């Protein structure tokens, strides 16, 4: 069986592709091991197989009963999987061998299928003399290649719907945006601060309308020069579906302002004319 082919993709997408590869490999391996690709009838339970063989020959239970000398009630119990209505196993094996010879099929295969299903029922530890409170017979829990394939396909469909649901949520929702520093309303005495935050992977971020770098984990960091007094910080993030989110902070800078004193040029005294 091939290994899982997980790549570095968003979580929901990676889950979908891993589930798809796993189920495809599991279905193929099971079909090869069980001979499902060579003989489709192997997906049937014993009762389903007997009924199908009888219907293929267009015979009724009474016809088979007359030909094999097996009572109709026992034939019906075999087809319905009601093993609790059958006599001892030695008689059931004899019924199956007679039935197989009459239909010209492999009698050992029918006997082995009966023994496998009977063992499964015994391992369930249920009372086979009456139906369960939910109306199921023990044969309802027999696992065949058909039920396995249907279950795996169901899981695959569920994984596909889960992936589409996550993609729809990503399309409809705005991206995440968290500013780690500075704090909103912070008061600083520096003329430069570092703005750090986190957003969705693959999103684009601007700081006061200037693009800044975002790493593969959605983290970003950049320096910002402050004017003395109140400063407005606007961070905008836009995801791959063109959905955006904006966070606006105000920061007060109390750095001292250097006063510029204008220099007055001295005017030299006038030169008096000489006689």
How do the helices and strands line up, and which of them pair or pack?
Blueprint: H1 11-34, H2 46-56, H3 61-68, H4 72-80, H5 89-103, H6 107-124, H7 145-172, E1 177-181, E2 187-188, E3 192-199, E4 204-207, E5 210-212, E6 219-225, E7 229-238, E8 244-253
Parallel strand pairs: 2-8
Antiparallel strand pairs: 1-3, 3-6, 4-5, 4-7, 7-8
Helix pairs in contact: 1-7, 2-4, 5-6
Number of spatially distinct domains:
2
Give the strand line-up of the largest sheet: 2-8-7-4-5
Distance between the termini: 120 Å
Shape: rod-shaped
What CATH architecture label of the largest domain applies?
Orthogonal Bundle
Portion in strands: 15-25%
* Mean of pLDDT: 77
The CATH first-level class of the largest domain comes to: Mainly Alpha
Compressed to H and E, one letter per element, the order equals: HHHHHHHEEEEEEEE
Low-confidence runs (pLDDT<50, min 5 residues)? 1-9, 35-42, 126-141
- The percent of residues in helical segments reads 40-55%
């Amino acid at each position: 069986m091939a290994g899982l082919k997980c790549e570095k993709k968003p979580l929901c997408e990676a889950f979908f592709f891993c589930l798809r590869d796993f189920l495809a490999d599991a279905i193929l391996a099971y079909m090869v091991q069980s001979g499902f690709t060579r003989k489709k009838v192997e997906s049937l339970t014993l009762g389903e197989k007997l009924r199908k063989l009888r219907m293929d020959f267009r015979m009724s239970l009474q016809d088979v009963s007359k030909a094999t000398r097996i009572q109709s009630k026992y034939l019906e119990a075999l087809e319905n999987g009601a093993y609790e209505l059958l006599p001892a196993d030695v008689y059931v094996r004899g019924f199956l061998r007679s039935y197989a010879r009459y239909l010209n099929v492999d009698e050992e295969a029918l006997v082995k299928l009966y023994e496998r299903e009977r063992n499964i029922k015994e391992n369930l530890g249920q009372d086979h003399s009456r139906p369960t409170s939910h109306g199921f017979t023990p044969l309802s829990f027999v696992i065949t290649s058909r039920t396995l394939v249907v279950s795996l396909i169901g899981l695959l469909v569920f994984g596909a719907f889960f992936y589409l649901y996550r993609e729809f949520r990503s399309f409809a929702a705005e991206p995440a945006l968290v500013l780690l520093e500075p704090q909103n309303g912070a008061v600083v005495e520096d003329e430069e601060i570092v703005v750090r935050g986190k957003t969705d992977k693959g999103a684009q971020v601007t700081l006061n309308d200037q693009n800044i770098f975002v790493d593969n984990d959605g983290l970003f960091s950049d320096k910002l020069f402050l004017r003395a007094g109140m400063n407005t910080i606007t961070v905008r993030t836009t995801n791959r579906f063109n959905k955006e989110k904006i966070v606006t902070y105000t920061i007060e800078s109390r750095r001292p302002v250097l006063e510029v004193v204008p220099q007055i040029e001295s005017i030299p005294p006038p030169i008096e004319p000489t006689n």
